[in-house]
Amino acid sequence: MRAAALILALAVAGAARADAPEQSLRPVPRAASAETAPAGDAATGQGQGMRGFFRSLRPQPRSARVEDQARVTRAALRRGAVCGDVDLQGDAVGRVSGQMGGCGIDQAVRLKSISGVRLSTPAVMDCGTARALKSWVAGGMRPAVGSHGGGVDSIRVMASYACRTRNSQKGAKVSEHGKGRALDIGGFALRNGTEISVLRDWGRGSEGRILRQMHRSACGPFGTVLGPEANRFHRDHFHFDTARYRKGSYCK
Q1: Which residue range is the domain that position 218 belongs to?
Q2: Minimum mean pLDDT among 10-19, 78-87, 122-131, 143-152: which range?
Q3: Distance (Å, rounded) from C-alpha 233 to C-alpha 148?
Q4: Cα separation of 212 and 236, whole Å?
């Protein structure tokens, strides 16, 4: 009897083991992961973060105060514009008469700044010369200086309109200064408080290279470009004028 009971117990245990593999093959439910979680569960924070990121890339509307300031600035520029160009700021002068034959300007302007660059003293000239200066400031002066010293803050003007002969020499022809077509520049004040000086820096170091590039780039916008190497009268300044010659610009 004891042997029969033992045999029966072993048979029952074997049957239980035989059933176990079938149970292990049954699929076990998985907990919801971040990949399968519906919006509003674990993925909600990430989705909101991405939406916030894209919202931050949208341009923010300017405040009414900023808009008002911009309108005031634009209106002021229009009021101060000369030669029909808001980049040329100054005053319309009108007819300027000379004390000797050949001098004078029909529609003169008193230029104060060019494309945001101040002139150390207002310069009287005609609109053709003002436009040539704007072209040179954008295509010659600014590229030559670049970020050196923070860029140009103002241009030091040595002479503009003056009813006189060339180089103030007796018996010489009337200067282009006497026709409102010329400007003499002695240096450039930089935003960091330093200055590039034609007299001091021509031919010296990085400032000398900048000056030479400025001088070279003026040949085109202007008909005459003279510098320290032209003659003793121009050792301390650049002379730019808009006289035109059949053979092209004269630059020295």
Answers
A1: 109-162+178-252
A2: 10-19
A3: 28
A4: 13
* Residues with Cβ within 8 Å of residue 41, at least 6 apart in sequence: 32
Residue closest to 236 by CA, chosen among 189, 208, 200? 200
Q: What is the pLDDT of residues 213-226, one digit of tens each?
A: 999 999 999 999 99
Q: Assess if residue 127 is contained within a domain.
A: yes
CATH number of residue 156's parent domain: 3.30.1380
Q: Is 249 exposed, middle or buried (0-12, 13-18, 19+ CB in 10 A)?
A: middle
pTM of the model: 0.71
Tell me which H or E stretch contains 217.
helix 205-217
In a domain, 148, yes or no: yes
Domain count across the chain: 1
**Distance separating alpha carbons of residues 84 and 131, to the nearest angstrom:** 10
218-243: buried (b, 16+ CB within 10 Å) or exposed (e) per residue? bbbbbbbbbbbebeeebebbbbbbbe
Residue 170 CB partners (closer than 8 Å, separation 6+): none
Say if 241 falls within a structural domain. Answer: yes
What tens digit of pLDDT does each residue of 88-133 get?
Answer: 999 999 999 888 888 999 999 999 999 999 999 999 999 999 999 9
Distance CA 181, CA 85 (A): 18
**Would you say residue 100 lies in a domain?**
no
Report how many helices (DSSP H) and strands (DSSP E) the chain contains, helices first. Answer: 7, 10
Question: Per-residue pLDDT tens for 127-152?
Answer: 999 999 999 999 999 999 999 999 99
